[in-house]
Amino acid sequence: MQLDLETLQLFEGKISEGGNLYFSGSNENSWCIVYRDFTSVETENFYKIISPFGDILIYNMYCFRYIQEAILFFQVKKGDYFRNALIIISGLGSNQFVITYLIKNYVQNDQKIPKLHFFHSEGNFEMAALYLELLDKKIIYRTIKSNEENFLKIWYKSIQIQISFKQISKSRICFLLGINDRKYSIRNHLISQYIGNRSLSW
Known about the structure:
The chain is of the alpha/beta class.
């Protein structure tokens, strides 16, 4: 799929002399480079928040781990799908920013928290980790590998569980941890179901 100029400008990207995409993050001195083969490298504290229509009222937040996935998804959907919505790219060390952002802008102001849409890359637990940190700061987790498959191991109070990539739904996590979450409205998406084998070219 050809990257269009409007999308590049919306995500505040630049094409370097070497033909790579460069994005400055919302944190000072944070950045992400997307190479021509679609791999990327980023600083640990990189995150971005994009408001496609500049709406004041926000009903949905679309959360991605990788900026190239967010760009692909945006170009597939486009239009009014992103009305009253924010696109958030976060991961590695930046999950705490999203939590602080939600608390500051919604919880402390007694505002209804927008529906959170987590877009999961195959075998990547970054978005599940974000949800765990939103649920309770006392939750401890780490990624482990068993029989060539990645799992998320979670400790909470006296409970210890291990979930696969196919088990990262809100209902399953809350049930296994014994948590009744009425604060966050979550919808999980498998990014490959939307963008399939498409790749981006520019």
